[in-house]
Sequence to fold (475 residues):
Amino acid sequence: MSRLFASVRARATLAATLVVAVALVAAGTAVLLSLRSNLLGEAGTQAERSARDVATSLAVGTRYTELNLDDDDRPVQVVDEAGTLVAASEDLERITGTGVDAVTPQPSASPSDDGDEGDEGDDDDSGESLEAGEIGEPATVGDGTATVDGDTEDYRFVTVPVETRRGDQLTVYAGAPLSAEHGAVNTALTVMLIGFPLLLAVVAWVTWLVTRRALRPVEGIRREMAAITASEDLARRVPVSGTHDEVARLATTTNQTLAALESSVERQRRFVADASHELRSPIASLRTQLEVAAAHPELLDLDGAVEDTVRLQRLAADLLLLARLDAGERPADARVDLAALAREAAEGRTGVSVRGDAAVNVAGSRGQLGRVLANLLDNAQRHARSAVEVTVRRDGEAAVVAVADDGEGVPAADRERIFERFVRLDAARSRDDGGAGLGLAIARDVAVRHGGTLTVHDAPAGGALFELRLPGERA
Fold:
């Protein structure tokens, strides 16, 4: 059992750790993706700014050789309409990702080679206008690498189209280093790889401690139940904590179950003891008579022997029926006419009258219900002075059988006690005259098994009125 609790703690700890791990991985992935996206966007903005600066210079007529392309961190390429590299950053040794792998500019006419660098409005032989050209919308080319002065790094490249004042169509490629993005992402990933396991270890440790503390009362219940099982002392109870939580309710329910089990075992012990006592008397009497008859055949009391045998047979039948009822035997679902059954039970009995000629049907076991009526009539005749009256009627949806006698009745304090097994209220209910005290107990058990009740009240004639109430037959 301790292994089970350890397993429960382990499963709870594992589940909590897995949930936190999934949440951390999801959150960390989202953070890394967001960080990378922001840094890539920043690199693209820097590359766009560099490309626009170069495009602006070209648009106003700056010569290729006079472009400021000496920024070591941002490689730049200028390509003409034919795809020829006409300008590039100094010390650019290799580049990929722009679509133009050349790093050495080819000889080409500068945008202002055919005219003077004079002021605006100054006429020359070319007759060119000094108006600035047009710069197009920038576009992100993608990521690539470049080697500048022996250092190779990853870059994000942006392209900007430009038209010079001479009408030349040029394309400017500029890159911004991704070292900051790589560094930040790697740093964040390193922190996560170190911090997440530590955090998961803390979560697992805390969950283990909390689960152990939560299951400690359950372990106390288990130990106490093991001790009760070993000692067979059903009077002991498990400890109930004052937390008013599920564990406390479990302990309360366990104690209620122990109390019910103790009561059941006690009733069973009393039943066995009482049954043994009741069986001992007729068996001893019968044995005595047989021993006397064996020694003196002329002294055999045959009637007494038969009477003891019949009483023993009835007692055995009663005990067997009680055992079946205690085992939860379900009654049959046959159709039974209580009025006809009452007349059959009263037939041949002196001083017993039955009222209620109409059929009053119920669903149940004919044999068991007949036994109830026979037991009630036996009890009524035993205490009646002169008459017993049986009334069968309907009361709404219920079927009612009332058995009334004109005897002394049952005191109010004993009206529940008489339905206990082996109970006799006075000397009049002796073994010889009043049976074993099982008739009314059997009658009530059968009534309850049929979904009904059996109660006792004062009869109009002053005696006892036993009322059997059963559910009417379902349509």
